[in-house]
Amino acid sequence: MITRILSAETDSHAKEKYRDVIKILLKSSDIDSKLTCMFQNSDKLLCHMAAKCLALLLYFQLREKITLSNSWVAFCQKNLSEYPENEKVVYCLWTLTVIIKEIFKDTCSQKTEILKQFLTPFDTIFQVFYNSLFSLHFKSCQDTSKIINSMICSLELLELLIASRIHLKLHFTCQRILFLKPSCVLDVITWPVEAFVKRKFIIFIKKCLLWKVGEDLCWGSGPALMPPDQYLDVDMLALADAVLQAVDLGLLKTLSVRGKPPCFGGDEVQPACECVHGPDHVILRAASLLIIKSLEIKFQSCASANEIKVDLQSFMSELLTFLKPHLQPSLQSHNPCEWISRVFIEQDDDMLEAAKASLGIYLKLTRQCKTTEGLTQEKEMWNHHTHKYGYNPHCIFLFLLKNIGFDSSVLLDFLISSETCFLEYFVRYLKLLQKDGASFFTICKYFDVTELKDSINICGCSSSLVQDRSSNQTELSLWAALGSHRNAHASVPWASDASGPLNQPVMSKEPHITLQAAAGLSPPQASQSLVDYDSSDDSEVEVTDQHSTNSKQTSLQQEAKKKFQDTVRTGTDEKELSMEPQSRPLVPEQSNINIPFSVDCDISKVGISYRTLKCFQELQGAIYRLQKKNLFPYNATALLKLLKHTESIYNESMNSL
Known about the structure:
Layout lengths: L1 H5 L5 H17 L2 H7 L6 H20 L6 H12 L7 H17 L5 H9 L3 H12 L9 H24 L5 H8 L1 H9 L4 H16 L21 H17 L32 H20 L4 H19 L15 H5 L4 H24 L4 H13 L4 H11 L4 H9 L5 H14 L1 H23 L6 E2 L3 H11 L6 H4 L12 E2 L30 H17 L1 H14 L35 H4 L1 H21 L8 H19 L2
Pfam family, one: LINES_C
Organism: Vulpes vulpes
Protein name: Protein Lines homolog 1 isoform X2
């Protein structure tokens, strides 16, 4: 009956009849006491249904402004305050949880008043219960299953309380209890409990740091995000400090990262089948995000650049050491900044949160270093620091683009979606790119060199066509081919960690090396539109707009094409060298076998930087067309200006070579 009353589909006349029946029932019998007595029944299903009925009945009383039964309030207060002696606390927690969920789901405008009336009698008692629950000595407990059950129920209630603080303007102490005593919850992760319990707790703390608690409850008709309260900054800093302190005490070593393979129909693997255990990527992502986000929050209130560098070095070293055994191939032979793309490859929202946090750390450290700007050597040491500890924003962004194949439609999807923080991250990065374009192009050059070396290693050229060269000579020749950037190797310290010495091949009659990647070719999917047009006329208009946009790009492309054609004669016509995806790779023609393979084609014009600019141009065109048709969800004028400015940055870089 209560469900019918709360349903929007029920006729108003029928709702009134149901209300009358429920009110008569409340007056005629002590129904809440009878339902609480059922909690002692050995039938678990009956206990569950009794708790659910009681929760809906209490919510009905709150909604109709009927005073809650004193007997039920006293029952809950007694069970919460007497924990762990009283075993009925789970049903109290479950009832409280259901009531708050119903408040969130309701469409009425008095949610804040209803929740305030409900939480008032339990504010102090819940703090007592919180202290009792998390101060238990888990190892000395005989029945650990009951404690785990209580913890899971209390964690769900705690999440709802914090969510009500975010989405409803209320300020009870029980809503801040996690931030006032964060070590209590963090200690549970170090207890010898099952892996799923640790996973629940670490994901919960991650949500709190990202301020995303209760998002699943407030989807659709849920309440809007309220302005942060006066204690928010203090509480977030306290939680971040507690996380970093726990990591310093060995939190990561207590995490169970080895995942268990899923088995259809059971949890055991047949003896004849080989069992391959992989890492638990959920734990890896959550732990990584805990550290990087906590560092960002802490550094916001830190005034010393040296203190930031010391903490960053300490915690990022520990994080990269923690991740290293679980990432194959290991990060040791790659750029350490790749860790974000490797860890968060399956979770876009977390990956962008981690990228945004690392960018925030970089910008904070940049501002601090500018106040103590010194010699060029100090700047190079700082650049070395950003690469060694995996937070260089240019590397992180380029790895992101490589993962999506430089597909502008994926970036467009991120910008349109409200499920990630990509818009905020992208705008901040483009602003950084305006000021720090030189570093971006230097890093692009090394990406191109590394990509070329990997291609040469993969192709497996014949030993008769290989000239033995030392690693140092190879590095010098490659960097010399990229231009007169003599200190580029020093500014990109992970160059020395590349995968071993490079044997320099010569061109044969049947070369194995293809230059499709270096030619800046985007995947076919990049040209596809995300918009379903109402008619074929609209589609034809877009084709015309696309042709117009491509014609504007001709001047930018001609210089790169000419340089590439002069160096590597492909025997193909100009159409095959256009910006469109090609049906076959560009393969160099026969060359003099006595002349070693060269990169005089200036990779910077047809490599990573060129593909990045092309991706930005395609994205700019797509946003412009959508905004012109009033199909873009927000005003993107400022974003279009930032994207347009990347062209001038690229042109300036090309002119300086």
